[in-house]
Amino acid sequence: MARRRAAEISVYDYLDHRAFLGDYYVAQKERGRGFSYRLFSRRAGLRSPNHLKLVIEGQRRLTAEMAVRYAAAMKLPDDESAYFLDLVAFNHARTPAERADTYQRLTGHRGYRKAQTLDQRHAAYYSQWYIPAIREMAMLPGFRGEPGWIAERMVPPITREQAASALETLVALSLLTKHEDGTLAPAEWVVKTEDATRGVHLASYHRVMLERAREALDHLPGTTRNLSAITLCTSAAGYERIVERVKRFRQELITLASLEDEGTHVVHVGVQIFPLTRPPEAA
To answer: Is the CB of residue 170 less than 8 Å from the CB of residue 162?
Structure first.
């Protein structure tokens, strides 16, 4: 993220507290009032004169208690202070559940909803199964970017409102391009998300697609789906070989799809690998 001038600094523009603190420090220095790491430490009641520097550089972890001191030293208003504390907690969350919980707190701030519109689009893209599907649907011959036309062709069907919202998200993320005549066409094929939130969004995507797999098992005829699984006994090295083989398989599928003259419908292919027992050293 490029450095911002002092007047432009807002904690709501950040999904990484270290990036915010780095820009905050530069902004304060630009004001020419003798600001320094030592001065900040005095304001925060810290003994270490370069505590802020170490946090910015990732050499020291900002604890919840220290985050409160930092917010006070920066004289953040109550709402911005609360967002900063939640941001620190989010960046330090260790488990998927913790990250999901702290991310939910971040998105609850009004300032986040005003500043992080792109991240909200990413969250929508990964949390609604039909948005990636519509992105692929745009490759079909005769595709019509009309909410009603799209909605009735989804399995299961979605509402016109959902289809319209999905189209808005895809255009906002530059995944679909709107021409002057109003028609839509595929555009950028790489979804670029912030490093800080990528893990949360991808976890959301996998959850929603696993739920779709369950629904397909219960409601779709066997002739229209293919579900298979295998349980194996393997070593750590064997596990890595399996993962690498799956990566190559995914690339093969992408190549096969690219060789198609014309697609007819959109499918989802999912592969999950997870342990059912603990390895000896963890038992």
So the answer is: no
